[in-house]
């Protein structure tokens, strides 16, 4: 796995030329003594041409789906939610989900486990990923998905695990794998219910998309992003504009807002909302 590096020159304390340290993660760069008030130009991100939406404009209020009503035994309640879901998927392609059944303690445990991973030494993190270098789709750690094609380095680190149909082990002592397994099973249940509901909202059999894509053997990933404090946040970008390549994304956060979604040619800031997930329809679902 290639990891982009940035060299920061530290003035040597004597006349012998010193080897500048190689910065191999955004976290390491943010904590470097050489980083004071200016970030390296390699992280400068140009502004996007789209406008920022007015958060008080009703047109740009992110819609919400009550998961308990979507899975209700009441035909009337479910029918109403399916109708709303169809409109939201068509007009937005993303929505908040409430009453989803995942406890706040499990969500917090997953966030804390990810935080423990990112606080390991760089050597420890890369050694974990190195164990699976023969099949990097199982575990990937780094600062960029494609260091060769990205023109601007992103102000974030990530760990990506393939959790289904097989499950890799990071470090048996830190509890990450155990929490990730519990979290992935619960979110997979939500994803399955949502896929069935979306299928039905399209006038198809509830199991049509699930069976057509053979989701029992479909791959599930867990991706954790780490965005360290940045002295020039107006210049850097944690994650550039993109669409997800999968079927559906279920996203949680650590109570810090920053994510934006594009709606009607304007960027809508997604406010961190307790006890919710953000669901994003990805490329494969858009095709359906």
Automatic annotation (TrEMBL):
Designated name of the protein: 2-oxoglutarate-dependent dioxygenase 19 isoform X2
Organism placement in taxonomy: Eukaryota, Viridiplantae, Streptophyta, Embryophyta, Tracheophyta
Matching Gene3D superfamilies: B-lactam Antibiotic, Isopenicillin N Synthase, Chain
Residues annotated as domain Non-haem dioxygenase N-terminal: 62-166
InterPro entries xref list: DIOX_N, IPNS-like_FE2OG_OXY, IPNS-like_sf, Plant_2OG-oxidoreductases
A GO MF label: dioxygenase activity
Alphabetized UniProt keyword annotations: Dioxygenase, Iron, Metal-binding, Oxidoreductase, Vitamin C
Presence of keyword Oxidoreductase: yes
Pfam families on file: 2OG-FeII_Oxy, DIOX_N
Alphabetical list of PANTHER family matching this protein: OXOGLUTARATE/IRON-DEPENDENT DIOXYGENASE (PTHR47991)
Domain Isopenicillin N synthase-like Fe(2+) 2OG dioxygenase intervals: 220-288
């Amino acid at each position: 796995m290639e990891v982009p590096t940035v060299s920061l020159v530290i003035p040597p304390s004597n006349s012998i030329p010193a080897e500048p340290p190689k910065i191999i993660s955004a976290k390491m760069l943010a904590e470097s003594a050489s980083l004071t008030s200016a970030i390296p130009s390699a992280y400068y991100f140009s502004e996007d041409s789209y406008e920022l939406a007015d958060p008080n404009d009703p047109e740009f209020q992110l819609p919400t789906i009550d998961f308990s009503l979507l899975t209700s035994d009441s035909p009337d309640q479910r029918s109403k939610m399916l109708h709303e879901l169809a409109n939201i998927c068509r007009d937005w392609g993303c929505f908040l989900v409430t009453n989803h059944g995942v406890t706040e303690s499990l969500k917090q445990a997953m966030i804390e486990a990810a935080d423990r991973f990112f606080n390991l030494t760089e050597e420890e993190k890369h050694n974990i990923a190195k164990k699976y270098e023969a099949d990097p789709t199982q575990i990937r750690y780094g600062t960029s998905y494609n260091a060769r094609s990205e023109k601007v380095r992103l102000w974030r680190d990530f760990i990506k695990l393939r959790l289904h149909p097989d499950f890799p082990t990071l470090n048996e002592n830190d509890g990450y794998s155990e929490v990730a397994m519990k979290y992935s099973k619960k979110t997979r249940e939500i994803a399955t219910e949502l896929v069935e509901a979306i299928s039905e909202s399209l006038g198809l059999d509830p199991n049509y998309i699930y069976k057509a894509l053979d989701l029992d053997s479909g791959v599930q990933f867990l991706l954790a992003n780490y965005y360290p404090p940045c002295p020039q946040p107006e210049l850097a970008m944690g994650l550039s504009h993109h669409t997800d390549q999968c079927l559906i994304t279920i996203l949680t956060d650590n109570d810090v807002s920053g994510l934006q979604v594009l709606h009607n040619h304007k960027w809508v800031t997604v406010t961190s909302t307790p006890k919710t997930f953000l669901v994003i329809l990805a490329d494969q679902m858009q095709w359906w």
